[in-house]
Amino acid sequence: MYSAIEICVSSICLAVSLICGGLMWVKRREVSDRSRIYLVIANLLIAAILFFIIIGAICGYRFYRTWTLLDPVKSIGGLYIITLFLCYPLEVMRPGQLRGYKLLLLWLPSLIVTLPLLFGVHFRLLYSWSDLWNHLLEWDVLFRMLSTVFLCIYSLQLLFIPYNWSQSSVDNHWIRRFTFFSQVITILYLGHVFTDQPFWMILHISWGIFVGLYIVYYELRIRLLPPAKSETKPLARLSSAEKPATTVVSAAAEESGDYWPMICQVMDEWEMWRNPNTTVETVSTAVGTNRIYVARCIKEHTGMTFNDYMNEKRIAYMASQLRLNPKQDHKHLYFEVGFRNRQTAYRNFVKFQGYSPTEYTSSF
């Protein structure tokens, strides 16, 4: 049966899921997309599962077979959980796009592997790795293996889904972070499914507690929300990815080694600093040289690192807009100039202006 530590960790996760789900429900109207609704559903589903597990432990009953590998309920149920978990970052990356056939395609693998359960098909019990190996080619085992393959694919899919940075409230760092979260969840879950050891279950639930708390913290304290209505950007504000795939390098620049005029064109005319994903590599590609020359050129002409140069431009534009209209929401300005993190934006504003945005506007 369940150990005391399994019940304890499950109870903590149940409480965390209810608290996180409740907070996201209360704050759901702060965002214009459905991301927090997906978080509410995911947290409530996890809480319901844990509730029945704990009740079963108290009553001396397991809802799935113990000491079996690839239990059908656990292996297929895990695919449902990871799919529901990914609805949140997908909605954040591509607001309003997770609808209709796209939502159906996301859930299609889960629906396919569930069909045998719906028709009451008998699944072979696997008690050891030798059982798994001996029956690996049987269709019911292959079906369960297929669900684990989909789990692994889904844990990586955020890296391959394009998104519009001008509308999304995240950048590439956030996408990589959430991909890491989903990969660890998948690895720990597969460890539990293929061994049925309490150690893996405890690790899996503990990591889930951390991820749940982090997401709520990120939503309430860090995430910058885009304005309700995004405006169409003029050509000068397009990123290099949205402009024609050409470089602005000139023969004179190659001979002299001074790429500063091209860097100024990329930054001042194209305004690449508005893109939160702009790096020294993307600028060097647009200019037609390598990252070392770009970083060195910026250092020689401004005395700043590439990141400071980018952030100084963002804050300078934001300060000019606040001078024109001190009453406007500075969080929307943070978003407009390319920040996707409240803490980073606030820290850079204080760094380059010497005041917080509130103090800066109160001085007018």
**How are helices and strands ordered from N to C?**
HHHHHHHHHHHHHHHH
Please state the overall shape, judged from the principal axes of the Cα atoms.
Answer: elongated
Number of domains: 2
Beta-strand percentage range: under 5%
- Counted by DSSP, the helix tally is 16
CATH top level label of the largest domain: Mainly Alpha
Termini separation: 68 Å
State Rg.
Answer: 25 Å
Q: Any idea of the CATH topology of the largest domain?
A: Rhopdopsin 7-helix transmembrane proteins
**CATH architectural designation of the largest domain:** Up-down Bundle
Q: How many runs of DSSP E, i.e. beta strands? A: 0
What number is the mean pLDDT? 85
Class derived from helix and strand content: mainly alpha
Largest sheet, if any?
Answer: none
Helix content: 55-70%
Low-confidence stretches: 230-242
What is the secondary structure topology, with strand pairs?
Layout: H1 4-26, H2 35-59, H3 72-93, H4 100-118, H5 129-134, H6 139-154, H7 172-195, H8 198-222, H9 251-256, H10 260-269, H11 280-287, H12 291-302, H13 306-324, H14 330-336, H15 342-353, H16 357-362
How would you characterize this protein structure?
The chain is mainly α and 364 residues long. The chain has two domains: 4-222, Up-down Bundle (Rhopdopsin 7-helix transmembrane proteins), CATH 1.20.1070; 235-362, Homeodomain-like (Arc Repressor Mutant, subunit A). Helices cover 66% and strands 0% of the residues. The chain is built from 16 helices and no strands. The protein has helices at residues 4-26, 35-59, 72-93, 100-118, 129-134, 139-154, 172-195, 198-222, 251-256, 260-269, 280-287, 291-302, 306-324, 330-336, 342-353, 357-362. α2 runs antiparallel to α3, α4 (100-118) runs antiparallel to α6 and α13 (306-324) crosses α15. The radius of gyration is 25 Å and the shape is elongated. The relative contact order is 0.08. The model is unreliable at 230-242 (pLDDT under 50).
